[in-house]
Design goal:
Elements: E1 3-14, E2 17-28, E3 32-36, H1 43-50, E4 58-63, E5 66-67, E6 78-81, H2 95-100, H3 110-118, H4 134-146, E7 152-156, H5 164-179, E8 184-188, H6 192-198, E9 201-206, E10 208-214, H7 215-219, H8 222-239
Parallel strand pairs: 3-8, 3-9, 6-7, 7-8
Antiparallel strand pairs: 1-2, 1-4, 4-5, 9-10
Length: 240
């Protein structure tokens, strides 16, 4: 099985806290990995390290078999959707402009139309990004991430703050990308039901990795789910 991502003994320390403690896991081609964990569990730090936004880590991160410290090439094969940025109403960029930012080669503009149609936002292409609903904006960011036909899509809590109808549509798009187009997906989420329905693998992160394996194995084990819920509750109380 071709390994898309291999993470080995990853440690990230900030001055006052250890954000990631000895995290190791791998992702195979075609996997749909749901990463779950309470706020402050290190999910965003993990993604920042994988995308070279944080280079102060110990351990090894490999994409497509190559150490990311030695080569940036892998970034061309990845689409990334961050937590939702907020745009002012009159931010001077259209949907078309935003998706174009994702293109590597200007000559590939025909890909923009193709991806907008695939995500059912073709009729919005000349609208200002700031005028769209949260759900529509999020589909634009997915379009930007997919316009180069990446092999891997990384999504960091992509549905925070958008309405349920948009979330359902968004999830059906992810399912389609993974099952029909065979795009490998790594997705962090707080929605356990959605992870259970969509992901075939789960990584449970709370600074350290306390579970990584098949979704069924996690969700059918009441002890594990309980442990996860308690960790989330404690973190929630801690923040309040």
């Amino acid at each position: 099985m071709l390994k898309i991502v291999e993470i080995d003994h990853l440690n990230v320390k900030y001055p006052d806290v250890k954000a990631l403690d000895d995290v190791s896991f791998s992702v195979n081609k075609g996997d749909f990995l749901g990463i779950i964990g309470p706020n402050g569990a290190g999910k965003s730090t993990l993604f920042a390290s994988m995308l070279r936004l944080n280079t102060k880590y110990e351990g090894t991160i490999k994409f497509f078999g190559k150490d990311i410290r030695k080569s940036k090439d892998y970034l061309k094969e990845i689409g990334y959707v961050p937590q939702k940025p907020i745009f002012e109403k009159n931010f001077p960029a259209t949907v078309n402009d935003v998706v174009r930012m994702g293109l590597r080669k200007e000559s590939d503009v025909s890909k923009i139309d193709e991806i907008l149609q695939q995500l059912w936002i073709h009729e919005l292409s000349n609208r200002l990004i700031g005028e769209l609903s949260g759900g529509q904006q999020q589909r634009v960011f997915i379009a930007k991430a997919l316009v180069n036909k990446p092999k891997l899509l990384i999504l960091d809590e992509p549905v925070a703050g958008i309405d349920q109808q948009s979330i359902d549509l968004f999830y059906s798009i992810l399912r389609e990308l993974n099952s029909k187009q065979k795009i490998t997906i790594i997705w962090s989420s707080h929605d356990l039901d959605a992870v259970n329905q969509l992901a075939n693998h789960v990584a449970c992160l709370n600074r350290t990795l306390f579970f990584h394996g098949e979704s069924d194995e996690f969700f059918e084990n009441d002890e594990l789910v309980k442990k996860y819920s308690e960790a989330s509750m404690q973190e929630h109380m801690h923040h309040h």
